[in-house]
Design a protein that fits this description.
- This protein is of the alpha+beta class and 218 residues long.
- The protein has 3 helices and 9 strands.
- It folds into 2 domains: 118 residues; 93 residues, OB fold (Dihydrolipoamide Acetyltransferase, E2P).
- Helices cover 50% and strands 23% of the residues.
- A 9-stranded mixed β-sheet has the order 5-4-9-6-1-2-3-8-7, with no helix packed on it.
- A hairpin with a 5-residue loop joins strand 1 and strand 2.
- The longest helix has 80 residues.
- The protein starts with a helix and ends in a 5-residue tail after the last strand.
- Bound molecules: zinc ion.
- The site of zinc ion (ZN) has 7 residues, from helix 1 and helix 3.
């Protein structure tokens, strides 16, 4: 009779026991009973089997879901790679486009700064005006004045291409543009060259863009 009553108690407790919700004392009681009662043992085994079956179907669902998720993840990965490739391509394209634009702008700026803002200026007396080697050229030979630094006191020559005098080539006197023919030997002039001074004898001034005839009183 006692055993039968214990069986009822144990069987009531088994679901909790399986899920490990019972305390140690209860576990000891249940396990002791199970060792001596085949009926309850059988019931426990069946319960565990059912649980495994349920777990398996749950697991299957989980696996199925995971597979689905994984394939979604794969699509996402491919999409990300495509987006990345497009983004990189676009960035590269714009980088090189911008780079070229930047180089062009920098080159223009450099030209502007070096040619227009920082001419080499020196003061000289015109020694000789002669025809140049090229058609339409005039060669002007000048001698640097003492007010120049040591490097600019020697003789220099430069050419003026009369047929193609660029807009930025000016001959001025008193702030007014004058004709090339008004340049005379013996005049004192300020010569603005934007290019290099070529080391020859006499030295050659490249890119002379402006000649200013100075007042005789200077
Ligand atoms: Zn029992």
């Amino acid at each position: 009779m006692k055993e039968k009553r214990d069986c009822k108690i144990v069987q009531d407790l088994l679901p909790n026991y399986i899920e490990k919700l019972t305390n140690e004392e209860t576990n000891a009681f249940i396990e002791e009973h199970l060792n001596n009662c085949d009926d309850c043992k059988k019931i426990l085994e069946n319960m565990q089997k059912d649980l495994n079956v349920n777990m398996t179907s749950k697991d299957k669902k989980a696996v199925k879901y995971f597979k689905k998720y994984k394939s979604k993840l794969k699509i996402l990965k491919i999409a990300m790679v495509i987006i990345l490739v497009i983004a990189l391509g676009t960035m590269t394209y714009y980088y090189f486009t911008f780079k070229n634009a930047y180089i062009n702008a920098a080159t223009e700026l450099y030209k502007m700064v070096s040619e227009e803002m920082y001419p080499d200026t020196f003061y000289a007396t015109i020694e000789e005006i002669s025809d140049g080697e090229l058609y339409g050229d005039k060669t002007i030979k000048v001698k640097g004045l003492d007010i120049n630094d040591v490097n600019h006191r020697g003789e220099f020559y430069f050419t003026v291409i009369l047929d193609h005098i660029p807009d930025n080539f000016k001959i001025e006197f008193n702030g007014t543009k004058i004709a090339f023919e008004e340049l005379k030997v013996g005049q004192k002039v300020a010569v603005y060259n934007y290019g290099d001074v070529l080391e020859s004898e006499p030295a050659y001034l490249s890119q002379v863009r402006k000649i200013v005839v100075l007042d005789d009183t200077l």
